[in-house]
Design brief:
Layout (H helix, E strand, L loop, with lengths): L1 H18 L21 H10 L9 H4 L3 H10 L2 H15 L11 H11 L6 H18 L7 H13 L7 E5 L2 E5 L5 H14 L1 H10 L16
Helix pairs in contact: 4-7, 5-7, 5-9, 7-8, 7-10, 8-9
Length: about 220
């Protein structure tokens, strides 16, 4: 086992040394690769957070136009089906005990879920956000062109129910408050669990509203 670890460390050192003269894999980026990664530090961080080196955070303003139609669809859903959906969401979003001394991935996930544990109507709002992002990906693939970006954005959207404490950026002539995004592990884990558990619900939404721009009823699903 120690020999294997030593070989891995030597291989990482060799890769890191070679990457000092290799450019980032993103077309047009003049920066050099970061350590053993294929991308520079900036694009590697985007790939880690959003599932793609060119991925970006999609703000709620982009998909909140779907909210009225999704809420109407929830009201039309049978109470038994809705109870099952909310039970699945409660199991996924249950935080569990958080240890202040541990830095494990499981503990980081629990600490993120602890932040949204007391949000009013958490399960309903999480369902509305996840469904809206899924419909946005279906109707506007340019925004979320692949599954990985959709998965992470569902996690980001749900965890933004209780945003992290923000920081400030200077924008030309004023300071603007910017909330910090949730951790990459938490967003990927939550997004993948929600997509797997609620895939029948998402497919039902797509079958019910396949062409959101053709009828007056379905226009509520189009972002404004």
């Amino acid at each position: 086992m120690p020999r294997t670890l030593n070989r891995m460390r030597e291989a990482n050192r060799d890769t890191a040394q070679a990457n000092r003269i290799r450019h980032c894999d993103v077309s047009g980026c003049p920066k050099f690769r970061s350590y053993t990664k294929r991308y520079c530090r900036w694009h590697a961080e985007r790939n880690r957070r959003y599932g793609h080196p060119l991925g970006r955070m999609i703000t709620r303003k982009v998909y909140q136009g779907y909210f009225p139609g999704v809420r109407r669809l929830i009201r039309q859903c049978p109470s038994e089906t809705l109870a099952v959906i909310y039970q699945l969401l409660r199991e996924i979003l249950f935080p569990g005990p958080v240890s202040k001394s541990s830095r494990s991935r499981a503990n980081l996930l629990r600490s993120e879920l602890q932040r949204i544990a007391h949000v009013p109507r958490r399960d309903e709002r999480a369902l509305v956000i996840a469904t809206s992002l899924f419909l946005l990906s279906h109707h506007n693939p340019y925004r979320l062109p692949d599954d990985e970006r959709l998965t992470r954005m569902i996690g980001h959207g749900v965890l933004q129910l209780a945003p992290r404490p923000g920081h400030y950026h200077f924008r030309g002539d004023h300071w603007q408050s910017c909330g910090r995004p949730a951790g990459a592990t938490a967003t990927h884990t939550i997004g993948s669990k929600i997509r797997e558990a609620l895939s029948p619900w998402f497919l039902h939404c797509i079958r019910s509203y396949t062409s959101p721009t053709t009828t007056k009823k379905n226009k509520e699903f189009c972002p404004t």
